[in-house]
Amino acid sequence: xxxxxxxKEHGLQQLxxxxxxxxxxxxxxKKAAAEAAKKGPPKET
Length: 45
Fold this sequence. Notes:
With 45 residues, the protein is of the alpha+beta class. The chain has a domain at 4-33. The chain has one helix and two strands; from the N terminus they run ββα. The protein has a two-stranded antiparallel ribbon. Strand 1 and strand 2 form a beta hairpin. This is Proteasome subunit alpha type-7. Keywords: Proteasome.
């Protein structure tokens, strides 16, 4: 997989695989947190 980003500071640059992995992990963590927030706290039985 190739990912390229453009920023004001660094212009156009291609991300290394490790950088892509870090970003992907952050996105997955935020997605999991959002899903958990939708479900609310666990119900007691």
